[in-house]
Prior knowledge:
The complex is a heterodimer of chains A (about 200) and B (about 625). Chain A is mainly α and about 200 residues long. Chain A has one domain (about 35-185): LemA-like domain (de novo design (two linked rop proteins), Up-down Bundle), CATH 1.20.1440.20. Chain A has helices at about 1-60, 70-90, 95-120, 125-130, 130-165, 170-175, 190-195. The radius of gyration of chain A is 25 Å and the shape is elongated. Chain A starts with a helix and ends in a 7-residue tail after the last helix. Among the domains of chain B are: about 5-90 and about 185-270, no CATH class; about 95-180 and about 305-355, 2-Layer Sandwich (Zincin-like); about 410-495, no CATH class. Helices cover about 70% and strands about 5% of the residues of chain B. Chain B contains 24 helices and four strands. Chain B has helices at about 5-50, 55-60, 65-85, 90-100, 110-125, 155-160, 165-180, 185-225, 230-240, 250-300, 300-315, 325-330, 350-355, 365-400, 410-415, 420-430, 445-460, 465-480, 485-495, 515-525, 530-545, 555-570, 575-590, 595-605; strands spanning about 100-105, 130-135, 140-145, 150-155. In chain B, β3 (about 140-145) and β4 (about 150-155) form a beta hairpin. The longest helix of chain B has about 50 residues, at about 250-300. The interface of A and B includes residues 35, 46, 155 and 156 of A.
Amino acid sequence: MIVLTSVLCAVLALAVLSALWAVAIYNGLVVLRNRYKNAYSQIDVQLKRRYDLIPNLVETAKGYLKHERETLEAVTRARNQAAGAAAALSKAPGDAGATCAFSAAEAGLAGVLARLMAVVEKYPELKADAQMSRVSEELASTENRIAFARQHYNDEVTAYNTRREVFPSSVVAGVFNFPEASLLEATQSDAERSAPQVKF
Amino acid sequence: MDFYAQQEAARRKSIWLTSVALLFATFVVAATGFVFTVAAWGACIVLKDGGRLLGYARFMELHPTVNPAAYLLGFVVVLFSGLWSYCRIGSGAAVMRLVGARKARHIEDQTLVNVVEEMSIASGVDMPSVWVLEADDGVNAFAAGRGEGDSAVCVSAGALKYLVRDELQGVVAHEFGHILNGDMRLNTHLVALVEGLGGIAGLGRGMLWPVRKLIAKLFRQDEDDASSGWGWRGGGGGGGRGGGVPGCGPAILLVGVYIITGCALWVLGLVGVFFARILQRAVSREREFLADAAAVQFTRNPEGLADALRFTRLLKGFRWRWREAFAANVCHMFFVEESWVESGTHPSVARRVARLSRFPLSANDAKFSERLKKLNADRQARIAENYERYQRRQSVTRVLSPQSIVLPDALNNQLTNVGKSGAILCALLRGEPIAEWKGPMPVAAKRLIANRAISTIQTWGSEAVAAAWSAKVDSVARDKGELSTFDLVVWCAARRRLRRSPPRPFRRAELLSDEAAAVVATVAAYGAHPAAAYALAQKRLVQMFKTFPASARPCEGAREFADALDALRSLFSPAKHELLMALRDVIAEDEVATDDEANCLAAIADALGAAWPA
């Protein structure tokens, strides 16, 4: 009788302990999931910052870049396109077409911005302008922020996925349906992925 | 480099070291408890058994509660002194103000603020407050605060000036590594542990204090008796003799037990602190590696951080101007440490770079040479500027305080008499010659005599007599009409010191900035470059007065000046001091101190209750 009771007690205690343990693992997974979701929204915040900054940049550069009208116009156009694509994506998150259009617009914007910065290099008086140097520092910082926000998102996703896949939390993740999160990739095109060919 | 693996390894190692430190502290606490038990045993032998030896085991049997009580006591001592040190840790902002850092500004420190925000995004840590330490032109940075919510990052002005963006990013990321890993808190705990063990040493030292006092006294007495050398040995031996020499009285034995306990606690505490500090530093070094690896995780650019470290290595000979006492508490948070020994709170730069980069320590020396040249030039310029300012001040000080004025004896005698002093004062104001002084009288001598005369009346004359002389000075001044700056000194000083006036309520400095500005402008107007001199003072006073007008109109006439001085008497002492220092700068601006300037300064100093320039 005593043996039976003590065995029962032990089993009960074990059950309670493992239940508590499972709860802890579950909570940990939820924390990680919320973290990577939050990290994702941070990227949007930084993209918005870039859209807000570009009109400033164009306005500052306009006075000096009289002969580069089409570059400035291209920047403004790309900015509006990207902002529109971002708005469309936020209305239909996860939509494949919207995602594709958005990443194309983003790539286009990055391209013309790089071109504008190369043009600025050619105008020493513009480079020396205090307002211009402030704005270009802000722009450089924003580009960094976007990259860092993506990186942070990927870090959080990796932490989440690792936790999700290792034993024993994989059991909890399987039972309570924690799906795998996908990493952001910098480029969608295979051409960009392959090493660039440099010819002299 | 595999920064994940490195972080994991550093984290594991520091946890292991922390456990060793905790274990060690437990051991020291236990040893303290043992010392207390033995002390109780000794006291028991002396008091209860009259010196008859009692076995330790038998003692334990007789008093079973002594042992746990003693261990508890040891624990409480450590706990309380540890808590005491813990309570002194301020919030991040408080620490920053303590070092004298200023908040980073969005416009001027744009890059820094941006870099910090970028790192805040990359690490997912809340944005800390950002500070700049202007006084430090070396390359350094540190983080402070109680935790993630209340943290602050400070970067030296030199780091802002001489590091490129990627390197600055590495430095800031390193500090974020500290914040994310909770190193400030961990280190606070470890310091509390060390201080807790220090409490044992403190207790032992405190117990021995009366004994040391007594020995010192005996030693001195013997010196007086000229029986040198022997007395202190006898006195000191009194302690050592308590071990159980038969025939000694219980009191002496008890004192012996007391002294031995004190010595044991002292030694135990010191040994504990020594080893605990070594462990604390070992933990701190591991956390540096951890922060470096975390920094690489945030920036994904190991070369930026490695270059920043390589650059600091070239600054080896430079000293950072951290406040000494403070540096001991924060140095574990620095980006690089001031001392370059391997047992310090930071691993050597060479080891850190070796973990970060495949390239050798001196890989980029050529790249730094330009910046080093600039840094050296800046330093030279700063030293030269300081030296120039020092020289200018010296020349002004020479003019303002001539040491060579000697009053003739006859005049000195007259200046001890109230009535004659008053007469001399009036004569000085009227510009009449004084019979006892041969030849022309310099203004400095006039000021000295006036000051002495007023002091004599103030000290020895009754209230009514003093008021009467003050009225007389007033009437003489009124008869004269136009007052020179010297007359102003006499008039203002007599008015203030010879009349009873109600005590002044203190007023905030910013409420008095207009009066201060008028006074400064008046003094500046006597110099060669009034605008430049005023700007000099404005720059200095704007900190203390918060708002200080960029330009001001000099006072018109003596009465306006006197009224402004009257108002300034409500300033707090630090503001008064700052104002006088600023006026000294104003006078020193054109490198000559004229009589007018010296007179004005005397009047102001008198109004503010400071000593006059003679």
